[in-house]
Design goal:
It is a single chain. Strands 1-5-4-2-3 form a five-stranded parallel beta sheet. The chain starts with 8 loop residues before the first helix and ends in a 15-residue tail after the last helix. The protein has one domain: 3-Layer(aba) Sandwich (Oxidized Rhodanese, domain 1), CATH 3.40.250. With 141 residues, it is of the alpha/beta class. 37% of the residues lie in helices and 13% in strands. The relative contact order is 0.22.
Length: 141
């Protein structure tokens, strides 16, 4: 028997985009260039293979989409302190779809303020935003 999906990705994205703040790549670059890192955390939700292949926004915090809820929830054994601060969280993925859903999920969990970058990393790169190569963690000796 074939599955019957009652709420597809288009509806989910439309709902997310109607409820979250969306920054253009130029707006996100301006936030980054203003040195707002004390007040803003840029969160890269891409898979580590994507980051390794394409690079990342300098200073971005890497949190795979699959761990987002666990890292945000302070009661989770996986909670990350970065998400407990009084900051604005700007999410991005490769093309702006996963980050819209991630920002909506984070907002639904109570994290605020949140936003995402329209067009994701591709839009950032194409707009001339700075990109740094991914460097693997060095083993401790």
């Amino acid at each position: 028997m074939t599955q019957h999906i009652t709420r597809g990705i288009k509806a989910m994205l439309d709902e997310a985009n109607a409820q979250i703040e969306t920054l253009s790549a130029a707006e996100a670059i301006a936030v980054h260039q203003a040195g707002a890192s004390a007040d803003v955390v840029i969160v890269d939700i891409r898979d580590p293979r994507e980051i390794e292949r394409d690079g990342r926004i300098p200073g971005a915090f890497a949190c795979t989409r699959g761990m987002l809820e666990f890292w945000i929830d302070p009661d989770s054994p996986y909670a990350k302190p970065v998400f407990q601060g009084d900051k604005k969280f700007v999410f991005y993925c490769a093309g702006g779809l996963r980050s819209a859903l991630a920002a909506k999920t984070a907002q639904d969990m109570g994290l605020k303020p949140v936003a995402h970058i329209a067009g994701g990393f591709a839009a950032w790169r194409d707009a001339g935003g700075p990109v740094e190569a991914w460097l693997p963690k060095q083993p401790k000796n």
